[in-house]
Amino acid sequence: MTPQTFLVTGASRGIGRALSVELAKKGVRVLLLARASDALEVALSSVQEHSPESCAVPCDLADMNSIAVAAASILESAPVLDGIVHNAGAIAPVQPILAVDGSAWARSIQVNLIGVQHLTQLLAPAMRGDHRVRVTTISSGASLRPLPSWSAYCVAKAGQDMWARCLAEEGRDRGISAISVAPGIVDTGMQADIRATTADDFPLRDTFVHYHASGQLSRAEDVAVQLLDLVLHHTMEQSGERFDVRDLP
What we know:
Elements: E1 5-9, H1 14-25, E2 29-34, H2 38-48, E3 55-58, H3 64-77, E4 83-86, H4 102-122, H5 124-127, E5 133-138, H6 151-171, E6 176-182, H7 189-195, H8 205-213, H9 220-233, E7 242-244
Parallel strand pairs: 1-2, 1-4, 2-3, 4-5, 5-6, 6-7
């Protein structure tokens, strides 16, 4: 049988990398999308140990032209997609809402939300047909709860949750399902970025430092294992729902 093909964004580190490896272990051909880096090549090598046909797709989601080039490359090598995991995200800028640089705020919305729509729309030809397509967006508690100095990230994640619901609604008769999953507090590069902020910019910085110091952060590898079944097998009846990984078996 032809293996399934899944695209995973933000695949060079953290949850994206760990989930790519878990998908590969199940025989899935994984397209690892992230900005070009040594980390992306290392992640690809780990995935290819289990799925040799997997490949890397360099892309900067902050750049619409880069997205277009990446989408064209994906369509050429994978005319049929069985799933997409929108995992890429950036926490910056972490600054008060009335003081944050406007261009940095807009870039966050582009990476965390607009890029999701643009990439998916360009990949529509690979999502059409009689096959099932499962789309998973990696959400956040910030999509439900406003946090000081996280306005761009909170707004983008809330928008991404609604985007998944909209795709679920429109994809229902086309074999396309979409869910969002909040992964909890995970020990990733984003958490390191949060701890690197100043208390002036982020009043809750010490809280996140304590999460790390007290061992409250989950391992990306463990979260990927918990996510795997939903990513691969969520049903049309579950389409449009938001899940929290801490509530999963």
